[in-house]
Automatic annotation (TrEMBL):
Pathway: Quinol/quinone metabolism; menaquinone biosynthesis. It catalyses: chorismate = 3-[(1-carboxyvinyl)-oxy]benzoate + H2O. It comes from Paenibacillus agilis. CDD domains: PBP2_Sco4506. This is Chorismate dehydratase. Belongs to the MqnA/MqnD family. MqnA subfamily. The lineage of its organism: Bacteria, Bacillati, Bacillota, Bacilli, Bacillales. InterPro entries: Menaquinone_biosynth (IPR003773), MqnA (IPR030868).
Length: 282
């Protein structure tokens, strides 16, 4: 029997779903493949990984090849605390200049482009840069960081107070009134055909890990303090503020994101969300 290759991202925002996940407990031929998000997105698209978390935008680009799991995502209704825009001038002025964009996340980059164009009618000059805030700000009026890079830059800015900080999740929610989903759990349709019963057990194991992390967050919080830094209070708030479901409210917000992405030419087709169920094969 062929092995089911599951992509694994080591960003703190996905930890709750992976923290208690044990491949051997699925009784399925599973291999975890560590990867950064951009590598995982590419490997999923090329069929070298069968399932796992991918950026919401990556799903949109290749939606015809994937099915989404209904109860797994990284979403927020408001502030997400790790997708942050750092500004050295007021937002409206910055939108008339240059914005440095992290190379780490297509979802967040395009979320910012949607907000800039649709909400403010702005088309700033965008430059892709590695996620190093001070170097980014030498070349731009604002910089977008995500994930642990954003968190550490936020901590540093709290000490030095050099930049104004805006949260993209909060900007989206205040503008649209909707949830924003940043990562989804996807499976390639071919893997559903090859491993229908295994996929069900794997989804159940991820869901159990998620629920255990939500109901008993202390081990997760301690690990974050030890590995990343910061305080227990920060991480307790951070994990509690994120949402790991993917129900109707999250799906509605993501559908709006894809609608705007299509209207702005960021995606070349209308995206429909194809949601997995127990009896879905292919």
């Amino acid at each position: 029997m062929s092995t089911i290759r599951i992509g694994q991202i080591d960003y703190t925002n996905v930890w709750p779903i992976f923290y208690h996940f044990r491949p051997e407990q699925t009784l399925s031929p599973v291999e975890l493949v560590p990867a950064v998000p951009s590598t995982l997105n590419k490997a999923m698209k090329e069929g070298n990984i069968d399932m796992g978390p991918i950026s919401a935008f990556a799903y949109g680009v290749s939606s015809k090849d994937y099915v989404l799991f209904p109860d797994l995502s990284v979403s927020a209704y408001g502030a997400v605390n790790s997708i942050l825009l750092f500004l050295n001038k007021p937002l409206i002025e910055a939108l008339e200049g240059t914005i440095a964009l992290t190379t780490s996340s297509a979802t967040s980059i395009n979320l910012f482009k949607i907000i800039a164009k649709k909400r403010y009618g702005a088309q700033p000059n965008y430059i892709p840069m590695d996620p190093q805030l001070d170097r980014m700000m030498e070349n731009a009026d604002a910089a977008l960081l995500i994930g642990d890079h954003a968190i550490r830059a936020y901590w540093d800015n709290e000490q030095h107070g050099r930049y104004q900080v805006l949260d993209l999740g909060q900007m989206w929610q205040e503008w649209t009134g909707h949830w924003m989903t940043f990562a989804v759990w996807a499976v390639r349709k071919q893997a559903l055909v090859s491993h229908p019963s295994d996929i069900g057990r794997i989804v159940e194991a991820f869901e159990q890990s998620k629920q255990k992390s939500i109901h008993s967050p202390d081990p997760l919080i301690q690990t974050a303090v030890q590995r990343v830094g910061g305080t227990e209070q920060f991480w307790r708030h951070y994990f509690a503020n994120l949402n790991y479901d993917f129900g109707p409210r999250q799906q509605q917000g993501l559908q709006l994101y894809f609608k705007y992405a299509y209207e702005l030419g960021l995606i070349d087709h209308h995206v429909q969300l194809d949601i997995w169920s127990e009896n879905k094969v292919g």
